[in-house]
Amino acid sequence: IVTALFALPKVSLIPLFILWFGLSYLQKTVFTSTAVFFFIFYSMMNGVRDVPSVYENSLKILGASSLQKIWMLYLPASVGWLLNGMRIATPYAFVAAVSAEVIASRDGLGFLVKNSASVLNSAGMFAAIIATTLFAVAATTIVNKLGSLWKWRV
User: Fold this and answer.
1) 147 closest CA partner among 72, 69, 89, 64
2) Is the separation of the CB atoms in 92 and 51 below 8 Å?
3) Tens digits of per-residue pLDDT, 13-60?
4) Is 58 left (phi over 0), alpha (psi -120 to 50) or beta?
5) What is the pTM for the complete model shown?
């Protein structure tokens, strides 16, 4: 089921989200979250699977509860994987947000692209595209810096 949902073209969900949430920031936020969820989900899943069984068995022998295992083992072991998922998901989040704005929005950079295209204003389109690219590069740089600061490994 998860693989089928991952393979689903996310852009096809935009009309459904418009019906549910209208032309609001909530619609763009939900769509963007849906579009990047699987990058982070699969990264975290790999992080949990990567935990050595010796550590799991040690916590089991010590009588750790499931919540303690999550808090003391799986979460710390998965943080690096989470940051890698965030590195991949960040540029796609901008693509998803702008796509949602191009299809249906009253504001935003995607709306500027669509409006500029409708009046054949290539300068406006390029301005919005360059601004989106700069925001995406800045956000990706921030995520990368956070990732380089994280030194905790299991």
Assistant:
1) 89
2) no
3) 999 999 999 888 899 999 999 999 999 999 999 999 988 889 989 999
4) alpha
5) 0.79
